[in-house]
Amino acid sequence: MILPLEFYQRDTKKVARELLGKILVHKLPNGKRLAGRIVETEAYLGVIDLAAHSYGGLRTERTSTMFMAGGHIYVYLIYGLHSCLNVVTQKMGVPEAVLIRAVEPTEGVDEMKKRRPKARKEIDLTSGPGKLCAAFGISRKHNALLLTDGEVFIEDAPPLKRSQIVASARIGVEYAEHAAEWPLRFSERANPYVSKPQPSDG
DNA sequence: TTCCCGATTTACT
DNA sequence: GTAAATCGGGAAA
Question: What angle do CA A100, A66, A42 make, to 5 degrees?
Answer without folding.
Answer: 25
